[in-house]
Amino acid sequence: MAEELEREADRVPRVNGESQPVAAESVGAPRAIDPRTRLLLEAPILPTLLRLAWPNIAVMLVMASTGLIETWWVSRLGTDALAGIALVFPLYMMMQMLSAGAMGGGISSAIARALGGGRHADADALVLHAIVINLAIGIVCSALVLVFGPVLYRTMGGEGASLKAALDYSNIVFAGTVLVWLMNALASVIRGSGNMWVPSVWICVGVVLLVPLSPLLIFGLGPVPALGIAGAGAAVVATTALTALALGWYIAAGRSVAHFRWARLRWASFADILRVGAVASISTFQTSLAVLLTTGLVGVAAGPEAIAGYGTGNRLEFLLVPLVFGLGAPLVALVGTNIGAGQKERALRIALTGGVIAFALSEAIGLAAAIWPTAWLGLFDDHPRMLAAGAAYLRHVGPAFGFFGLGLSLYFASQGAGRLLWPLSAGLVRLVIAVGGGWLAFWLVGTVDAIFAALAAALVTYGVMLSAAVASGVWFSRPLGTVFANGIFARRGLAR
User: What is the pTM of this model?
Assistant: First the structure.
């Protein structure tokens, strides 16, 4: 039953009660409501949400463990290497979040709507468009980081050995980042066609292979040379390539519901993906920019050891993203399906129920980290200044993790509702408080603890602001975000 629900949860044919545009090649008529869709509309909210969420959460945590595995092995190379990878990690996570969560969400949403409406030709055409979009963005991102990476990491506080380590790792990882974009395009196609298990299995296979491959390339063995921190990057690129190859074969072999077809590229198909993915990317940029700028602020305030401590502690916060994403994927489908059916009150109850669950899970992790910070930090290094900075971060910010989880879950629910103005607004306020407030607090107080207090205040504001807005019913009035997004496409005659 869980697998059946997951298949149908990704096939949401309508957004805000409005049919998607049908291209000239479209064939077939919309299907009648499937009994499995009816479960999303009528089944008890909490059991249904948990049934859909638990396998996604498990797989997302496995995927997130990739970074932790690397960090643990890199920590054996010393504090400078740990600081170097901490400089690169926010940027790499941004690539993951953009390609899988933001643009990947746009891909899955477009394909699910096409299949749900019986438009199989459109769904097949979207596969090629999804690959083209992600390959193009991946190439641009790779070039930008390879060219401007040294300046960026130096600005963030990297110097000497830590800067060299950052560049050694970054140059390998971002030379292959186009594979991350390709892999997530293919995974999103399969998820959008109603299958969450195939991408999950192959992602898990990649993580399993990373466990022995990373130390092999870092430290060497027999004829395999020791590559140091560059070996960690090479291991990630190799396992990503394998996963992308497996997912590409699955689609090319015709085993996915949405098939790969060579087709004429059409603006309408690009727009169907970008209408969701491009707007959602703004939120991802906000989150990643906040981490990048605060990492630089911590580096300027307290040096490389503090960057290592903050970066290691912040990885626990980043772990919340895949955790809540596992819950957010069914939230998108449940909220979108119910709003499409006109069940606004039920959609709102689903969103708030998901928010409560996300808050509870995230807050439990944050409180545990605040109470026992060295239990986490000590896994990676024992440098006193690194431990002190990391512990200060977790004690200040850990108790606010629940509000981050709350806001992030409601961001996904808002994607399902097609209402992204308030998530973007709350993210902007969070960015201003974290960065601007952090600089001001450090200028007034002169300690890194003041910066961490500002970060905690930013997370609390983010969660409270977004939950208050959603609970007040802002979804059910025409939002400025929709007007803005439609205005972009109106020139092409595509506004709804």
Answer: 0.71
